[in-house]
Every structure is written in structure tokens, then in C-alpha cells.
Specification:
nine-stranded mixed beta sheet, Rossmann fold, 18 strands, 2 domains, alpha/beta
Length: about 500
């Protein structure tokens, strides 16, 4: 049976605390509930606050809603509230909605249909969903949602303002564990004292990691990395100055001609976003296989794309499907392009590089801060690939995030020489925030000449045309992934017209 968490789930900000600066303010509408978000810097607090307030539900109404919620709980068995199976969640939700609607009409007999629906949605969210965390999931400005324990507010990573503590609290460790269990059941996973670590995802695609105390010594934790319903695209990257238009054109040229690319960077640097962005350049007449632990990529809808996802073993230790299993299987699916979410182990790296050697174009991510570190990571334990084998890789894109400003940038674009070394072609001038060309390409240029028959002048002309197209798309505010996919299809068919 869920505990009474309503009155204290919004932490009360002390009335005597002086507001120093209002940094931002906007509203969300979630199931007819109006939510106001204020980003506020309080005096004597080290970081700004993310303050949530419900604007169309009065304090008196909240008290009555809590009474309704408690009455509903007493009528419903614990099996139907906290312990339902994920398969029956929709059926339970429908059943609960009927009963809650009856109670709302009992306590609010004059409420119209819109108001009744709003109040019903609110109570269902409190009882069956993730409570106030549902509000955070609906905010498109948030990238991460983090519950560290029940003693402090939920933290969020905001695209504009970085890490912020919210005024939302989960008042007991049991509530945090309940949410983790509920998330796991929806996808056939479990988190227990014997298995205190869990990777899962929500139905929306948001990635979830959960841990139980005492593994996390301060309390139970939940970390949600939000899945972007509106994915990053090349035009958004150019507008945000994440990458220059010249660099984007060079990557486009390499991808069009089926050169393999490895995207590197630290946690949160935008590796997967860059992998998603470079997939904007794929032609529609080729078969693309993507392999991920949890679905994050969103490719244009006109592509011949088969997304695949790994699977953890069941409680009996059976049924596991690893990244390596999918990689090996993908080679039997006649792929033209293979996208790999992340290379972590030796066997994965061996299969990826073997695929490159046998003529497949492969695009993957790896944890390494710069191009030289990529080579070091690949050629030393635990991956330990012979250096000459790395020469099948053509380009390394190193992504970075400035910890102070929160800005994500392409740090380096490097080509891989025949000896397996990284040669940096473009590098970020951090002081001026500009991606600068520092070397002319040798290896990539020679490969393009060898496999396409293009001359140096032809390649330069092709790059100029690509720059013009990218600038046109930016000017026309073409940011949607499917719209960009349609433009790429016309480009490859030779029918693209720029007005």
C-alpha cells in the first residue's frame, strides 16, 4: 500500500529565504494540469533551484484530493495498487479511473467534465505513475532526472542551466524502491536485495538506472536519462555551434562515400547525439542495422532501418542477448551500414573492425576524451586490438562538454593513418569557441580518390556544394529529422532544388 506522500512531496521553500535572481520561468500543461516552472537562485544557496508549482489546483483542493486518494486506497487491495503486474497495468488503470471518477463526483459534485478529468488524471498520476517525477519527464528542457535518496530534493540537468535541485522530494526510501520495482516490471526486469543494480527503460524510451542501499550508501537511487522525442539533427548542431558547417560538410562527404566513423567523448558529451546527427547523411536506398543497449537513436523515417536492442538475462540467468550476439548476427542481415551504441569490450571491437575490413561501413561510440585516447584505449587492455588493424577506421569525432558552461562541442576531427595513429584535422579553439582546421587531410583524401575516382578539385567542389546545402537548411530552419531525411533523399537522387 503506498504511503501518504502527497503533502510533503513538494518541499516547502523557506519563506524567509531571499530570492537573489529569477533566471527563467515557463509553464507546462500535463493532463490538463497547469504547472509553472521557476528557475530561482536563492541567497546563500550554491546552485539555482528548479521550483515546481501547480497553478490550477488550490491548496484546499489538494487536501480534498488527498482525502479522495486515501479513500480510494482503502477500497483497493494492495495487489491492485502497488503490486500489479506490468501486463495488467492498462486494465488496472482503466478500473481505477472509473472508481476515482466516482469519488471525484462525490466530493466535487459541481465540477464540469474538464475539471473532473484533470482531477482524475492527477490522482492516477499520484497512485499509478511516478508521482511528481512525471512532471519532470514532460519538461523538454531536462536531460537527466536524478533521485539520490529521500533526504534531498530530486536533481535535474537542465539544457540551459545545468544541474539544479528541485523542490520535489520522495519522502521515504520505500517510495524510491517502489518506483524502481514498478519501472522494472514494465520491461521484465527486477531489482532486489540480491540484484541491487538495474538498467531498464520507460515506455517512452527514457533510460533508467536504479540502485538499492547499501550499494548506494546514502539511500536508494534512480537516474533517468531522457529520450529526446525531437532528436538532435545536423542543422540543430550547426545552430548551437556544436559543429561548424565546414566540418559537417566534410563528415557528410566521408559518410556518403561509406567511410567508417568512431565518435568518442566522456559521459554526457553528446556521443550518441552525434551518432544520431551523422545518420542524417545516410542515403535511403541502403540497409541500416543499429545495435544498442537501450534505444536512443532516431533515424529519418524514409531510411531502410532495422533497430536492434540487447537483452539482460532473466532471474534464472537465461535469455541474455549481448551486443556481441547482435553484432555477429547483423553481419548475416546484409547491412550496408551498421550503427553500434557503444564499444566496451575486446570482442565487440574485434567484430566491429572485422566488419570494416570486410567492406561494411560502421559507426560507433566509445568512451575516450580525444582522438589520441581513442587509439590508446583500442590498443591497450581490456580491448587490446593490434594497432595496424585500426587503419580500417577512417575518422574519429571527439565530442566534449565544458563543465562550467555546459556547452557541448566537437573537440576534434581526426583521420586514422595507415599505421593506426590519429592525425587531427580540425580542433576546437576553446578560448574563441571555434572549430579550426589545423591540418589538411592525407589518408581520407587518398581513400576518396582511390574508391571514387574523384580529383582533389572534384572533392573541393563537392564540399562547397554540401556547405551551401547545409547553410540553406539552417536558413530555412529545417530541423526535423524526417524533413532532413527527405532532403537527403532528393540530394542523392539528384532532384534537390534550393529556393
Amino acid at each position: 500500500m503506498p504511503e501518504n506522500n502527497f503533502p510533503t512531496q513538494f518541499e516547502n521553500i523557506k519563506k524567509d529565504k531571499k530570492v537573489e535572481t529569477y533566471l527563467d520561468k515557463y509553464k507546462l500543461k500535463i493532463n490538463d494540469i497547469l504547472v509553472e516552472i521557476n528557475i530561482v537562485l536563492y541567497e546563500d544557496e550554491p546552485t539555482p533551484r528548479y521550483v515546481v508549482s501547480l497553478t490550477n489546483i488550490s491548496d484546499a483542493t489538494k487536501l480534498v484530493l488527498e482525502k479522495i486518494r486515501q479513500e480510494f486506497i482503502t477500497q483497493a487491495s494492495s495487489d491492485n495498487s502497488d503490486n500489479q503486474d506490468g501486463d495488467n497495468n492498462t486494465e488496472n488503470k482503466d478500473k481505477f479511473q472509473v472508481e476515482i471518477t466516482r469519488l471525484i463526483k462525490k466530493y466535487f459534485p459541481t465540477a464540469n467534465e474538464d475539471t473532473t478529468n484533470m482531477l482524475v488524471n492527477y490522482i492516477i498520476q499520484e497512485n499509478l505513475g511516478l508521482g511528481k517525477i512525471e512532471i519532470l519527464l514532460k519538461d523538454s528542457f531536462l536531460e537527466e532526472i536524478v533521485v539520490n535518496n529521500h533526504n534531498e530534493g530530486v536533481w535535474v540537468y537542465h539544457r540551459k542551466h545545468g544541474w539544479l535541485m528541485t523542490n520535489i522530494k520522495l519522502i521515504t526510501e520505500a517510495r524510491i524502491r517502489h518506483y524502481s520495482t514498478m519501472i522494472g516490471r514494465e520491461v521484465g526486469k527486477e531489482i532486489t536485495t540480491l540484484n541491487p543494480l538495474m538498467d531498464a527503460h520507460l515506455s517512452t524510451g527514457d533510460r533508467v538506472n536504479a540502485t538499492l542501499s547499501p550499494i548506494s550508501s546514502k539511500g536508494n537511487t534512480i537516474t533517468i536519462r531522457k529520450f529526446s522525442a525531437d532528436p538532435w539533427t545536423i542543422t540543430k548542431f550547426i545552430k548551437e555551434n556544436t559543429i561548424s558547417v565546414e566540418a559537417a560538410a566534410f563528415i557528410w562527404l566521408a559518410i556518403q562515400n561509406e567511410l567508417s566513423v568512431l565518435v568518442s567523448g566522456g559521459t554526457g558529451s553528446g556521443k550518441t547525439s552525434m551518432l544520431n546527427v551523422i545518420s542524417n547523411f545516410f542515403p535511403p536506398n541502403q540497409r541500416i542495422i543499429s545495435i544498442e543497449d537501450t534505444r536512443e537513436l532516431t533515424l529519418p523515417g524514409n531510411l531502410h532501418w532495422v533497430p536492434m536492442e540487447t537483452r539482460l538475462p532473466n532471474p534464472e540467468g537465461k535469455g541474455e542477448i549481448t551486443m556481441l550476439d547482435l553484432l555477429v548476427n547483423s553481419l548475416r542481415m546484409r547491412p550496408d551500414r551498421i550503427l553500434v551504441g557503444e564499444i566496451r569490450r575486446q570482442k565487440e571491437a574485434q567484430v566491429v573492425l572485422e566488419a570494416m575490413h570486410t567492406g561494411h561501413s560502421v559507426y560507433a561510440t566509445i568512451h575516450a576524451n580525444n582522438a589520441d585516447e581513442v587509439i590508446v584505449r583500442l590498443t591497450n587492455p581490456p580491448i587490446d586490438i593490434p594497432k595496424p588493424m585500426i587503419s580500417s577506421l577512417s575518422l574519429i569525432l571527439a565530442q566534449s562538454r565544458n563543465r562550467r558552461s555546459g556547452k557541448r562541442r566537437t573537440l576534434q576531427i581526426a583521420e586514422v593513418t595507415p599505421t593506426g595513429d590519429a592525425r587531427v584535422l580540425m580542433q576546437l579553439n576553446v578560448a574563441d569557441d571555434v572549430l579550426e582546421k589545423i591540418n589538411d587531410s592525407d589518408t581520407v583524401l587518398e581513400r576518396l580518390k582511390l574508391y571514387t575516382g574523384l580529383s582533389t578539385q572534384d572533392i573541393a567542389k563537392d564540399l562547397e556544394q554540401k556547405i551551401m546545402i547545409l547553410q540553406w537548411m539552417v536558413k530555412k530552419n529545417i530541423e526535423n529529422v524526417d524533413h532532413i531525411g527527405a532532403i537527403m533523399a532528393k540530394y542523392y537522387m539528384g532532384t534537390l532544388k534550393m529556393d
